[in-house]
Amino acid sequence: MPTDPTDLRALLDGGQGRTILILGDLMLDHFVIGRVDRISPEAPVPVVQFDHESYRLGGAANVAHNVAALGARVEIAGLVGNDAEGARLVGELREAGIGTGAVLADSGRCTTRKLRVVTTRNQQVARIDYECDAAVQGAIEAELVKKIGESAAHADVIVISDYQKGAVTRATAQAAIAAAAERGIPSLVDPKVPHIDYYAGASLVTPNHHEAEAVTLMRIRTAEEARAAAQRFRARAQCGAVLVTRGEHGMWLLGPDGEHDLPAEAREVSDVTGAGDTVIAAIALALAGKGALKEAARLANRAAGLAVARFGPVAISYEELTAALG
Question: Where are the domains of the chain?
């Protein structure tokens, strides 16, 4: 039975002004855009004639951007390099109204940046990744744990956005989950498979179907297979609930009030980049407003349908989502 859109609007409105803390891997998405009219005489590659470039917040920073655009207050904890890209990333976060008091500059690493060369028709020609994905440790890890504890004191929800670029370690993840438990608030995780043991005690983990397959060693092609994998994933991750995102097949939610198959909301798919960020951002907002997990997942499903219709990582705004709810 379809969800009443007025219920979803009330859920969206309930999260306005709530505070969400995000721990994760901050990235800068750098797009170099140009026209392709010929192949290089030097090698069988296209020649891209530069037109313009742009920067967007990526990774956990995209989650934060989505949460802020939906109307919540956001604090973010993570790492940047002591470099120009780090300064740009922090500046972009502040411009989006995101608190950066828990962002640490680590001179031992570069800021994670994904440079994509793209045509004016949104066709990707090449990608270059600048990153140091070694796990943070020592004094900087200890300082990050401290910042998480301080920032959690005012949070209504805590989100861990793990891209396996160094900020999410066993110590930082468990500090975030423990802080949430102590405050009696939800902790949400967008996971990476090698870190599955870090998330014990989380309220909700949101693997995509590839990650769920890797953790459970189960094939997921049908709703029944998603159901079985979600049950095994929850037992393996030792978390409270699991939301398996299945692309064009929608989502499968294993929650405290039962199991739910949520059909996909997308009418048109342009680019799935960052769709998972939009999903967890919308769920965080809804739960911060004391919404039920099932309805939060339905709201996130609608938001994801908007995100995949646009190119690159995008922040879906309160106004866009409200209009889409009808």
Answer: 5-36+48-325
Give the helix/strand (H/E) hosting 322.
helix 318-325
E strands within 85-168? 99-106, 112-119, 124-130, 157-161
Over pLDDT 70: what percentage of the chain?
Answer: 94
Confidence (pTM): 0.93
The catalytic residue among 25, 162, 190, 277 is: 277
Beta bridge partners of 255: 258
Q: Name the strand (E) or helix (H) holding 34.
A: strand 26-39
Rounded to an integer, what distance in angstroms lies between the CA atom of residue 43 and that of residue 11? 54
How high is the pLDDT of residue 272? 54
Enter the DSSP assignment of 108: T
Q: 193 Cβ partners below 8 Å, 6+ apart?
A: 211, 214, 215
- For residue 249, the model assigns a pLDDT of 86
Output the average pLDDT for the chain: 93
Record the tokens describing residue 257, joined without a space.
Answer: 């009030």
CATH code for the structural domain at 5-36+48-325:
3.40.1190.20
* Among 119-128, 139-148, 160-169, the least confident range: 119-128
In the residue annotation, 261 being an active-site residue is answered as no
For residues 191 and 244, what is the distance between their CA atoms, to the nearest angstrom?
A: 11
